[in-house]
Amino acid sequence: MAEKLLEIKNLKTSFRIRDDYYAAVDNVSLTVNKNEVLAIVGESGCGKSALAFSIMGLHSRAKIDGNIYFKNEDIANISTSKLNKLRGKHMGMIFQDPLTALNPLMIIGEQIGETLLLHNKDMTKSARKEKVINLLEKVGIPRPEHVYEQFPHELSGGMRQRVVIATAIANEPDLLIADEPTTALDVTIQSQILDLIKDLKEDMNSGIVLITHDLGVVAEMADRVAVMYAGQVVEIADVHTLFENPLHPYTRSLFNSVPNANEEQDQLHVIQGIVPSLQNLPREGCRFAARIPWIDASAHETNPELHEVQPGHFVRCTCYKHFNFPEESKEEQQHGVS
Amino acid sequence: MWKFSLRRILIMIPQLFALSLLIFILAKMMPGDALSGKIDPNIDPARIEELREEMGWNDPWHEQYARWVGGVVKGDFGQSFRFKMPVTEIIGQRIVNSFWLSLVTLILTYLIAIPLGITSGRFNDTLRDHLITGYSYIGFATPLFIFALVMLWVFGFQLQWFPTSGSVAPGLEPGTFDYVASKLYHLLLPAFSMALIQTYSTIQYLRNEIVDTKQRDFIITARAKGASETRVYNNHILRNSLLPIAAFFGYEITLLIGGSIFVENIFGYPGMGQLLVESITLRDYSVVTATTLLFGVASVLGALLSDIILSIIDPRIRIK
Fold first, then answer.
1. Which residues of A lie inside 8 Å of B (Cβ-Cβ)?
2. CATH superfamily placement of domain B2-313
3. Separation of alpha carbons A229 and A276, rounded Å
4. Buried residues in B6-30 as b, exposed as e (16+ CB within 10 A)
5. Where is each ABC transporter domain found (chain A) (predicted)?
6. Interface pTM (ipTM) of the complex?
7. Are A118 and B236 an interchain contact pair (Cβ–Cβ within 8 Å)?
8. Which end of chain B has a smaller Cβ tally under 10 Å, C or N?
9. Which helix (H) or strand (E) holds B118?
10. If we measure between CA atoms, which residue out of A178, A142, A134 comes closest to residue A159?
C-alpha cells in the first residue's frame, strides 16, 4: 500500500472580483503518494497553477475552502509562519518561467543558499556554500564554483531552470510541485530537465505534482494523471489507462489535438471555443458542454459528478458515453462525396 | 565597474564643454551689461565705451569665450563687478553653505520619503497608502516659494523656533561646536521646507516600484523558499525597488538646485542660489556664469553618481 503524502479534499480556491467570489479551483480532491508522479493536465486557464499555488499557500488574496492534508496535517488555512516552516523544507516548487523566477540582483549562490539558510539556522556559511555547489553539480551545471558567483542574466534559460530546480530541492523536500517546468525551454533542454526531475525523484523518494499541458511529458513522467477543465478534475486515472482508454470528451479532445507525424493532416484538430473565464463559468451543468455543442443536452448531468468506471479511473459527467467527434460522424456522411 | 565608471566620466567632458558654451552664450544674450545699469549717469558715454573696450567686451564672442574658459580651467572665474573681488572668493563661502543646505535637504528628503514610500507600496490601496499618496500629491501641487514663506512665517516669526535669516549666529568662532550647531540650526528650517514638499517623486517612484516588484515571479520564488514577509521585503523587494530611486538621484540634485534658489532668497540664506539671483539683477556676468556653470557641473555630477550607484546595485548595467 502506497503511503499517502498529500491528500486534497474538496478544495475550492476562489478569488474576489467585484464583491463576488469566483472559484478557480472548484471542489478538487486528489491524492499524491510517496514516490509517485501525479500529472495535472489541461489547457491554460484550467486552474492547474491555481491548484499548485493553493497547495503551497502562495495565493495572497484567495479564499481557500476544503482541506489539504500534507503528511496528515491540514495546511489549507494555516498561518504564514507555520507555512514557512514547510515551504522550502518539506515542499519545494519549480516554477514555469526560469527567466523571471530568479531575483535579478542576487548571485545564484545566494539565491539557492537562501533556502538552506532559512531552514538550517546552524549551518555555517562555508558548509552552505559547499552544499550549494554540490546542488549545482547535481542539477548538471558545469563549473559550479563559477556559476555560484554569477547573476541570473549571465545564464541561459536552461541553466536558470536548473538553478530553480536546485533551489526547490535544496532541502530534499517530500513533495515537489513542478509547475510547467519545461514550458519556457526548447525541446532538447526539455528532455534534459525531465530526466533530471526523474532522477531526483528516484534519489529523494518524494512525491511529485507535475503540472503540464504537454501530453508527451505526461507519458514520459507520470504515474497517474488528473485532467482538469475549468477548475474541476474531469478525469483521473493511472497513466496507462488514460492513454489507452481516455473517456471524458475533454481528455479525448486533448489527445486528438496532438499532431501525429505518421498521418498527413491538412489541419490540426482544435477544440472548439475557449476555456470560459472565471466570471463566465456556468454555475451548473457540465462545464465542457459549451465546447461540444453537437452532443445532445440530455447526455449531460445537471450536477456532474465523478464516476468510477473501473478501479482508480474516474470520469466526470455522463456525457462521455454519448461523445463522438463531429469529424468522425461527418466523415461517415461524406464518405461517398470526396 | 571601474571601466564603466571611467567611461562614464569620459562622457562628461563633452557634456561640460557644451554646458559652458551654452551658459556663456546665454549670459551674453542678456540685455544690458554691468555698465548699462547702476552707473553714475554723469559719466561720459565715451568713457563707458572705453571701459567696455578695455574689458574686451567688444571682442568677437569666441575670443571672449576662449578667454573665459581658459580662466575657468585654471580656477579663475574673473572679477565680480559688484564686489570688486575675484569671483572664486565670493563663491567660496557660499558654495559651502549651499552644499550643506543641499546635503541636509537630501538626507531629510530620503528620511521622510523612503519609509513613507515603503509603507505606501507594501500596503497599497489601504487607508495608509491613500494618506501618504494624498500628502505627496499636496507636496507636488504646492509651489515651494509659497510653502517656504508659510514655514518661515509660522516657525520663524510666529513660534520663533528657528532663526529667520543668515547661515550662522554672529560672533561665533569657526570650528567650535557652537558654530557648527548654529550652522545646522540655521539651515534646518529651509531644508525642512524644501524636503517636505520634494518628497513626492521619491515616494511615488518607490511606491509604484514596490507595487510592481511584489507581483514579480521571483518574489513568489522567495515565498516558496519559506522566507518570511519581512525577509521578502528587505532582501528581495526593496533592493529591486531602489533602482529608480538611484536613477532619479541625479535629477533630485537638479531639483535641489532649483529649490535652493527660492529657499535661499526667502530665508536670506547666503548660498549660491541667492548669489545667482542678485548677480542676475545687477548683470554681474562673471558671477552669473560662474554660479550657473557650477550648478550645471553639480547636475552632471549628480547624473554620474546616479549611474555609478545604479551599476553598484544592478549587475546588469555593468558593461563589460
1. 56, 58, 80-81, 83-89, 92-93, 95, 97, 100-106, 114-115, 118-119, 151, 153, 164, 167-168
2. MetI-like (1.10.3720.10)
3. 10
4. eebeeeeeeeeeebbeebbeebeee
5. 6-255
6. 0.84
7. no
8. C
9. helix B87-122
10. A142
Of B218, B224, B316, the CB nearest to A56: B224
CA distance B178 to B180: 6
Distances (CA, A) of B235 to A81, A104, B31, B223: 17, 12, 57, 12
Collapsing DSSP states into helix, strand and coil, what is residue A59?
coil
| CA B286 to centroid of chain Cα atoms | 21
Chain A residue whose CA is closest to B215: A60
Measured CA to CA in angstroms, residue A58 lies from A155, A167, A168, B228 at distances of 27, 17, 15, 12
Nearest residue of chain B to residue A94 (CA atoms): B221
Candidates B57, B61, B60; CA nearest to B81 is B57
pTM of the predicted model as reported, rounded to 2 decimal places: 0.78
Q: How far apart are CA A28 and CA A66, in angstroms?
A: 9
Residue A20: partners with Cβ closer than 8 Å, 6 or more residues away: none
Mapped onto helix, strand or coil, the DSSP state of residue A283 is coil
Q: Which residue has the cell 460522424?
A: A329
Return the sign of the alpha-carbon dihedral for residues A26, A29, A35, A38: negative
Q: Which of A75, A80, A40 is nearest to A242 (CA)?
A: A40
- Chain B residues within 8 angstroms (CB to CB) of chain A: 216-218, 220-229, 231, 235-236, 239-240, 313-316
- Evaluate whether residue A162 is within a structural domain: no
Residue A302 lies in a domain: yes
- In a domain, residue A172? The reply is no
Task: Tell me the pLDDT of chain A (338 aa) as tens digits.
Answer: 578 899 999 999 988 888 888 888 888 899 999 889 999 998 888 888 899 999 998 887 888 899 999 988 898 888 888 889 999 899 999 988 888 999 998 999 999 999 999 998 888 999 999 999 999 988 888 899 999 999 999 998 888 988 998 999 888 899 999 998 888 777 887 888 888 888 888 888 889 999 988 888 899 889 999 999 888 899 999 999 999 988 888 888 888 887 777 776 667 777 777 777 777 777 777 888 878 777 777 778 777 888 888 888 998 888 888 777 776 655 545 544 43
CATH for A318: 3.40.50.300
